[in-house]
Fold these 3 entries.
Entry 1:
Amino acid sequence: MSRKYTSVETRYLEERERTLRGLGGLSRRGFLKVSAAAAAAGAALVNGVSPHSFMTVRVADAQPAGKGFRFAYISDSHIYEEKVNDRFVRGLLRAVDDVNRMSPQPDFVLYGGDLAQLGQPSELAVGAQILKTLKAPVRMMVGEHDWYLDLGDKWRELFGQPMYSFDHKGVHFVVLMSVVEKDFWTARKLSPMERMKTVAGLDNGAQSPFEVGVEGRAWLEKDLAKVPATMPVIVFSHSPLYKLYKKWNFWTDDAEPVQALLKKFKRVTVIHGHTHQILTNRIGNIHFHGMLSTAWPWPYAPEGLPELTIQMDRPDPFDPNDGCGDGTFDVSEGALVDSIYRLWNRNPVTVKASYVATGKTDRPRSNNRRGY
Ligand SMILES: [Fe+2]
Ligand SMILES: [Fe+2]
């Protein structure tokens, strides 16, 4: 990555590393001072307050065994052009830096949608440029913020078709376009930007609910027809593939028929963006994991929250990175996943497949700070 695209946080970490490497040159008196500081940092860690720089060590230690593998997940960056607001650009840069520091590298990185804020070609182009600096191969998924200005023209030009599948190490992966909306704009004579802003205002009640849609379901049915029922399946969708809270479009309107198409498989994992928070659910054979945003956390919906969800604490409003982050999935041989939420400025949270299956075993511990 060029210097121009190194985030403030990474520059801070590099400076810290240089300082620690320079410890050998300290006098005894200086060394004792630094030792005391390190001991204090260790004590803070024991109390559950861990600066971000410790997290990568923990993540690097948790390598999957056997035939499993690992991929990383970055989502919901909502970037504006840098000259308008560079905070969300910096959020994406930080995630890219985090993932590029993983050793060994993940097999691939899934980008979970909402790369842009208002679907503008310049926003998508900046996002694409930053994602090109990832060392691992990138797979893209679309979100509603990427799509409703030009109905996907620029996104397709940059990234290809929004629905596709691929096989990787014995797992069938499907990337869905789950944010299809029925035409609410033509009759109301909305301009492209008015349409985009209507979709971007999730709770305005002026749009149609998300769905995979008739064409999408037909594509999915055809795609899955060639996959044996014993093959593990992982599905990526932008919206949760179940009905959580319609008023905020935390919702997929045709969730039931989509779930029905997945019923023949013994094990299915669905991983989604859009809700910008830790979310856990299981419906029959399907495990669901909602992922973090690099831009901001949404509050939890006032109703409809799945019982399995262990809520992350409400973030600190004075810390723009709190409640944000990226994530890692350790895929077991059976293709169920341990989802590692790498919350920036907090300890990581792991939601294991065993917890999703039982609701009891390996219950994720609560996060390390009180809510605000
Ligand atoms: Fe989003
Ligand atoms: Fe979204």
Note: The first helix runs from residue 8 to 21.
Entry 2:
Amino acid sequence: MIDESGSALPANGVPAEQVLAEIRSLREADRPTHGGRLFAYVYDPAVAGLDELTAAAYAESAHVNGLDPTAFPSLLAMENALVGAAARVLGGGPGTSAPEVVGSVTSGGTESLILAVKAARDARPEITAARIVVPSSAHAAFAKAAHYLRVALDTVPVDPATLRPSVADVAAAIGPETVLVVCSAPSYAHGVVDPVAEIAETAAAAGVRCHVDACFGGWTLPYLRRLGVDVPAFDFAVAGVTSISVDLHKYAYAPKGVSVLLHRDAGLRAPQYFAYADWPGYTMVNPVISSTRSGGPIAAAYATLRHLGDDGYLELARRTRDAVRVLADAVRGVDGLRLVAEPESTVVCLTSTDPALDLFVLVDELTARGWHTQPQLAYAGLPRSVHLTVTAAVAPRVAEFGPALAEAAVAARAAGPVVLPPELLALAGSLTPQALTPELVAGLAEGLGLAGRAGPPDRMAVVNTLLDAAPVRLRERLLVEFVGLLQRPTW
Ligand SMILES: Cc1ncc(COP(=O)(O)O)c(C=O)c1O
């Protein structure tokens, strides 16, 4: 029996107003995208009228297709303007040491990084087994790129105190098959900037490209520097930097679906393209992974940048910097918590120094109080932690966070740490991904309260504790299985 109420294809069409009401009702289960209490996934400047502007701009270009820039010059014009703006923010363009910077608009950070790896790989066709060197703190999208493109990943550990790789380790990891060296400015997990100048120099000396992943905070660092924050050189002002990615849907505050991949010159970008004329249809040339591309995100990003302007971004960076300081003080003010790193960008990352204060329980207690933070599992000598991506929207609410954090810490202590049954802990520690049967997954999901739900449970501490206890490969496999359970068609 098919339940028509939520069907995406009802027998008879539903009136527009009703459809919108249904979507709004579905959205009620979501985390709040506005209001400054969500510290991940969403970047909100809290600028009145911006949502209306970007929605209108999006609608204007939603049906325009970026497949063919000659058919839709409006899109080409906006894309070129976005690339020019990103290049200027990141030390390139006329009057700089990188006047020839070119780039492309992609759908997001992951696509930009995959393309940076592809360009580096295809620039060296003589290397049959290409490799890339990445700090262990680099975004997981590099591993995805390596996986998709069959490039090997050479991971360099980060120092547990500085959370940065040592330049000597990076140099040692570069070999004859290395096509790309990566650094982050800043890293997502901890918000620290890698020693870009030294790493880029090392890469250049070895004749290897160097990509700076500025997807996350690259748009804010230059503004923070203008506000007096000590930001090390990380952009095209550094001679050995060959490409940079920056996501406009993060700190440029554009709606989702827009990142920019910049190359120092057109020669470096050339291997990024894919062209094909060996079929009877239209001859195809794609600068990015998608072929058909909606103009919506590009137009919305263009509207965002033009509306906020350079002065707007400076002001938003100021508000964000001030909010970061208050949040960091709030962490310092709670016994048993400490900052994993002194904030140098727009991330506050904290950990627990008290076994009685379980971070995963703390995250649930914060959620229960309307503050949505992001737990990070322990990894390679780094402790489990809580990540806060701070955006300008937090500024008006920031004074409320300290008391909420203190209260949540008291509640987490009272609740006590998660204690998994010893047999489950032993299983998590010993199980191999291969040994994970569908029955075992179903049993685990049942036990963790994940089975038969429309979404994840409200309290995730037990799930996070189990994942934390599992080795990396088992974590990955469990996540795939759990998300697979959520992704079931509704008829
Ligand atoms: C440093 C960094 N690089 C890349 C990405 C991937 O971006 P996206 O989620 O837009 O694909 C992120 C996302 O958080 C990031 O923080």
Note: The first helix runs from residue 16 to 27.
Entry 3:
Amino acid sequence: MKFVKLFEPLKLRNTEIRNRIIMPAMALNFSPDRTVNDKTIDFYEERSKGGVGLIILGGCGVEDRGSGPTMLSIADDKYIPGYTKFAERVHKHGAKTIVQLYHAGAYSGMPGMVSSSAVMSNLTRRVPEELSIEEIKIVQENHALAAERARKAGFDGVELLGSAGYLINQFLSPNTNKRTDEYGGSLENRLRYPLELIKLVKDRVGKDITVGMRVAGDDFVPGSNTYKESAVFAKHYDDAGIDYINVTGGWHETRIPQLPMMVPPAAYVYLADNIKENLNAPVFSANRINDPILAERILRNEWADGICFGRGLIADPYLPNKAKENKLWDIKKCLACNQGCFDHIFTGRSVECLRNYQASREGKFDLDQKTKTPMKVVIVGSGPGGLEAARVATILGHKVTILEKKEKIGGQVNAAFIPPGRNEMQEIIKYYKAQIKHRNIDLQLNTEASLEKINALEPDVVIFATGIKFTIPDIPGIDGSLGSTLYFADDVLTGDYHVGKNVVVVGGSATGMETALWVADLGALDSEIARFISIYDLIPREEIFSKWLRGNRNVTIIEKLPKIGLNLGRTSRGFMIGHSMKMGIKTITGANITKFEGKTVEFELEGEKNSIDNIDTFILATGVQPNTDLYDSVMASNPSYKIYRVGDCNDKKKDKRNMMDAIHEGYQTAYNLDK
Ligand SMILES: Cc1cc2nc3c(=O)[nH]c(=O)nc-3n(C[C@H](O)[C@H](O)[C@H](O)COP(=O)(O)O)c2cc1C
């Protein structure tokens, strides 16, 4: 693959960045005292070493009432030294630096929070104070002072925050701006606050440093601004001399998914393309762009001038250099799982990354330091935890053999990527396949591990990554149904069984919900066929649309807990529920199944007996437990070698397990083998 555009320098008025790869602002929750501390600097220095063109730091609060208690602050001169150190260390490796000036208005949830009007925020459920005209000037002045601090610290620019529903949006939106003075009412009036802000900040620092604006490409909030108004706003910003426009998606309160895996890669590039027409300033595109080849395509299509890789650069700080050196096989692509980043932020924890154990631990691990005591390592099982252990152990100089009883690697991931919106999970398998190939790791497929087999390999260390096994709930009639009308979710997803017209999924956890969505899609018109039929007008468009949108199965989820999706992260659960409803999936919660009989399932609901008849297929998405069978027998044999467990098979770990735990344990175990 030749990158014609991605590595072209980009000029942002007086700042030239070395390529088109931008790391957008991401609140990392690294700094309890709100200073730019060493952890933050180490994190970004690594990304600068990795070849990114521009790093946008932040959001950095310009006022305490408009910011979060653990967000970076630039509201006082005392913060300048941290920023200075940041700029020096990041510049050393070639990336340019911009501070995002953050004011969340009614989204801050802080005491004394302010907004354009005293309208209750749909995010914080609280009513802000309306800014008087004098106070508007103070807020604007605080932005200008912050911009001067950024300049003083040696930053190359500042970014104003006109996206995600923050203060600028609160002025722009008729939903939140109910003012009757010159800052409210008409579109021109609602634009007054951001246009004055641009002028003020540019007057104060614009001769020396870049002043950009992040915009919501569409608020995706009923009654608020759409992509149409967004293009108008951008044109005004351009006319006011803004140096770049960084286009993202909707407000935080939107019901339209912005960041989870279910959003297809590059889904929101059209928002940048929509704004770019007739603009002088370069336009960046953001959200779900995780692949340099995709980024190159966006640039070649002239949909945008710069590409934001947010989570993509958390997952792999060296993505730019690896792309440049054509080592695409070695890039850890962001899965948009949100397990370590967004879900952590929403629960008050620091950002981590499922794919990259080193993210947030920069400088603490050095895979270039090879082991002085190479060991023979046998890994049993090739799920994500085992594969990560194999990768890290091999890089460190150990000799690894993976034993996998199936004909392919990946373990549970092979079923996990099948449901709609989960395709990105395949990246895990692709990545580790490439690692095995390029690093010459000994992989023995179709090889069931046993005590004898392991002993014959004479290992120094054995790492068990044997995952889970399914358990059959103790429900009358289940044995008779298993294999005739009732199947395990993973077996159905991997295509081993026919799924009939009327389907009940037993269990409404993540697996149950994803399986139900997959079933609801069965029988839908394939996209390519829908296009073909449309081109030749073979059937009416509405019919094509409805046949394409959903399949021909009737799906019901039965869950014993009061809610479904309780093991999903906060950033995915609501969207998954919304998606299920749109697909017509019925859910029955708080139901205790009492019997399976032929095509009928009986259950108790609120003390009453209920049943559903005429079910063709039951799918079991309940009951898994750590698979420790082989581990137990090897331990019982009193082996001479060291033994570890990683991931789901580790029944010592009682906490909630997920793929991030498995991969991180794989890394830690392999890294510490000789320690
Ligand atoms: C943990 C986290 C924190 C974020 N914080 C901010 C922020 O403070 N300001 C902002 O404009 N965007 C913020 N974003 C949005 C990102 O800048 C980016 O638009 C988003 O992650 C989508 O891009 P991606 O798919 O490349 O990650 C944040 C995203 C994440 C994951």
Note: Residues 374-467+623-670 form a domain with the Rossmann fold fold (CATH 3.40.50.720).
